[in-house]
Design a protein that fits this description.
Blueprint (H helix, E strand, L loop, with lengths): L2 H8 L4 H14 L7 H8 L3 H13 L3 E3 L6 E3 L1 H31 L2 E8 L2 E8 L14 E3 L4 H6 L5 H10 L12 H14 L2 E4 L6 E9 L5 E10 L5 H24 L10
Antiparallel strand pairs: 1-2, 3-4, 3-8, 4-5, 6-7, 7-8
């Protein structure tokens, strides 16, 4: 048995988290939700800790308590997480051959991302063996206002949506980061016009990225594809050729989603 597995077996679990998952699993098997007393009876859990767990999950949006029946049911946040997971799997499966071709053509690392809670989240990464390692990973969250992927994802947002993002704050990563609401709106208008987005050392000094939005059957932006490199790889002479390749890849994936029967326009929340 490996030392890592031994270490995992010796590490204690978190009892409250285990109880919370048992509660969620029991609720998943119920048709109309369950009350506190029913959960206590079915699961033989202590009343005080079970009530605290239910209140916490309710406050976080994972559960919802019906005020009339007193029954707890799944909240919208759980459905959103499930949709995100399923969407990520679907997008990765359908986009994988296209982004691998993009990596081979550009010799740059390629990412696929989705938008979640005002951040860009990487759902797939094809690392280039021809370029320096890019410090990203599947699941990494990135600034949505200062990365090529992020700008592509929100390029179809209405002004009021952008204003809400601005109200939440535009973190500054370095002196190149866009933190001006006016500049961000102008940048997004340019992305809509040209069909691609750029990160010119806005999140990480020395790093440049080019992205493009991916749409579903309804024409809604559900994901983005981007290439990442340094200033020696993405520069004036290579820029427009790379942008063309990224746009073509995004268009190909969008077409794949449009003709697919497995990807509904309403899957992305």
């Amino acid at each position: 048995m490996s030392s890592a597995l031994n270490s995992q077996l010796k590490t204690e679990s978190v009892p409250a988290l285990e109880k919370g998952m048992v509660i969620l699993e029991r609720l998943a098997r119920s048709k109309n939700g369950l009350s506190l007393s029913e959960l206590l009876r079915d699961l033989s859990l202590p009343r005080s800790s079970t009530y605290c767990i239910l209140i916490t999950l309710d406050r976080l949006g994972y559960l919802h308590r019906n005020e009339v029946t007193g029954r707890y049911m799944f909240g919208m946040k759980l459905f959103t997480l499930a949709n995100m997971a399923m969407n990520g799997l679907s997008l990765r499966k359908q986009g994988a051959p296209f982004i691998r071709k993009l990596m081979e053509k550009t010799r740059l690392t390629v990412h696929m991302t989705i938008q979640e809670q005002n951040e860009a989240v990487i759902i797939e990464k094809i690392e280039s063996p021809y370029a320096p390692v890019v410090g990203t990973w599947v699941g990494k969250r990135m600034g949505i206002h200062c990365t090529a992927a992020g700008k592509a994802l929100i390029s179809d947002w209405l002004e009021e949506d952008i204003d809400r993002l601005v109200h939440c704050g535009l973190p500054r990563y370095n002196e190149n980061t866009i933190i001006s609401p006016r500049k961000l709106k102008l940048e997004l208008a340019q992305v809509r016009k040209q069909g691609f987005s750029v990160d010119d050392e806005e999140e990480t000094i020395g790093s440049r990225c080019i992205g493009a939005p991916i749409t579903n059957q309804a024409g809604r932006i559900v994901s983005a594809v981007s290439v990442a490199g340094n200033k020696e790889q993405i520069y004036n002479e290579t820029f427009y050729s790379l942008a063309k390749d990224v746009k073509e890849t995004a268009a190909n994936i969008s077409h794949e989603l449009a003709v697919s029967q497995d990807f509904s326009p309403d899957e992305i929340c």
